[in-house]
Design brief:
- 2 copies of one chain form a homodimer.
- The first copy, chain A, has a 4-stranded antiparallel β-sheet.
- The first copy, chain A, has a domain of 92 residues: Alpha-Beta Plaits (2-Layer Sandwich), CATH 3.30.70.
- With 133 residues, chain A is an alpha+beta fold.
- The N and C termini of chain A lie far apart (42 Å).
- In chain A, α2 runs antiparallel to α4.
- The first copy, chain A, is built from 4 helices and 4 strands, in the order αβαββααβ.
- The longest helix of chain A is centred in the first third of the chain and has 28 residues.
- Chains A and B meet through α2, β2, β3 and β4 of A and α2, β2, β3 and β4 of B.
- β2 of chain A pairs antiparallel with β4 of chain B.
């Protein structure tokens, strides 16, 4: 009976630690951004392939790149939106100096007709575990 | 030795099944959408609380609501963007008839000054497992 209680206390304590860590990380340090781009229609397929490669590499190899969701509008396929989440400002700085980002940036510089970077803050970030990847 | 081989084959077969399931689900059935809203500045805090409650409830209780990311622009806090992923069209239809969505919709109808719903398709959806929630 005593051991069971001890285990229960340990489990609750661990849960508290983790929930605290998540809350403080989400509220204080993470960087959230939306990038809105317009792409040259003649180079759209090439652009999408380069963006896909760059985004997937970043999430795979950079510990501080938490999420990159890139989509295009069905009615205006040259309108691209990227929703970006970084662990903190340092992770974002590391990302824009990474070889895969510089490769993407250089390869797509004549494809991007406009680029708007919008800093955002979260209202709700709901995702089922494992639902996307 | 024979049992080990059998286990290895079973594991590989299971991985094949799952990777196929993921690929087909992502490509063919999922519904991706961006909602862009402008909110009455006098009611912004109330609106954000209602959106947060509605979005978190939907992801928690509806099996087909995979992800709802809601953010506001730091420079224009009344500009809200929601990035939505549903398992399929039926899941989206179920969502907009759910009690929590109808509660949100009714409670916020005089707070929303403009609403644009944009159907999108994925280029890359990279997210670290467990990074957000």
């Amino acid at each position: 009976m005593k051991i069971k209680k001890l285990i229960l206390i340990l489990v609750l304590f661990t849960m508290m630690l983790f929930s605290h860590k998540n809350a403080s990380a989400q509220d204080k340090k993470m960087v959230y951004r939306i990038a809105r781009l317009t792409i040259d229609s003649a180079q759209l397929e090439n652009y999408k392939a380069l963006l896909k490669e760059g985004a997937e590499t970043a999430v795979r190899v950079e510990p501080g790149v938490l999420s990159l969701y890139a989509v295009y509008e069905k009615e205006h396929p040259t309108h691209v939106t990227v929703f970006e989440i970084y662990a903190n400002k340092e992770a974002y700085e590391a990302h824009i100096h990474s070889p895969h980002f510089l490769k993407y940036k250089n390869a797509t510089k004549d494809m991007v007709k406009s680029l708007e970077l919008v800093d955002v803050a979260p209202i709700a970030l709901g995702a089922k575990p494992g639902a996307i990847k």
